[in-house]
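hey m, so remember when u said the tokens were messed up on ur end? i reran from scratch. heres the input so u can diff it against urs
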Amino acid sequence: MAMLQIENLEVSYGMIRAIKGISFEVNEGEIVTLIGANGAGKTTILHTITGLVAAKAGSIQFEGKELTKTPPHKIVAMGMAHVPEGRRVFSQLSVLKNLQLGAYTRKDRDGIQKDLEMVYQRFPRLEERKNQLAGTLSGGEQQMLAMGRALMSHPKIILMDEPSMGLSPILVSEIFDIIKSINEAGTTVLLVEQNAKKALSIAHRGYVLETGKIVLSGPAQELMDNDSIKKAYLGE
């Protein structure tokens, strides 16, 4: 059974049908990417999975439990973390405070301390700047902080929304290497990404979204080799 199972999901904003009955799944241990143009509905899907936007119809199941009526904080406690688009760090708080807030649903002090050390190991720059206000970090460092904060909830699955947005090419590569290593360490990843080439290069499988519908899906390598995808998304 899939870890995350979406079936016939529909989402509307007023009269506008943003998501038109889509179904897809994420299996444990995978990196699955959703690719598509701006406005295709990728962010809406993530927001609906994590309970920030209400589904109009359909089902979202995480480890067999229905999420469409579950409040967001309970979804986090079930083992799902969300790294939002635009990083959304608490700019007036220190780096350390931001990371500690990521663990707010947890009670295991020793485990939290261990995960903090793991985050510092993965992102040495965050440790160097742990007492700095998050708002003073560079874009790349804020992205690392947002990812580190998500890891502090000790999630089974991380949903990442446009992690490479606005970053320099060198940093983009670094962020994708980190996503890959997070996955190799045992966390499942659902990745929404404008940079289709990079996303498909680390993903196991992908789904292509166009105006709220899935038009193509398959193994990532297969999608990379597909001529219509090359033209539309890979700039070839």
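this time it looks ok to me. The CA atoms of residues 51 and 69 lie 8 Å apart. if urs says something different then somethings off w ur setup not the seq
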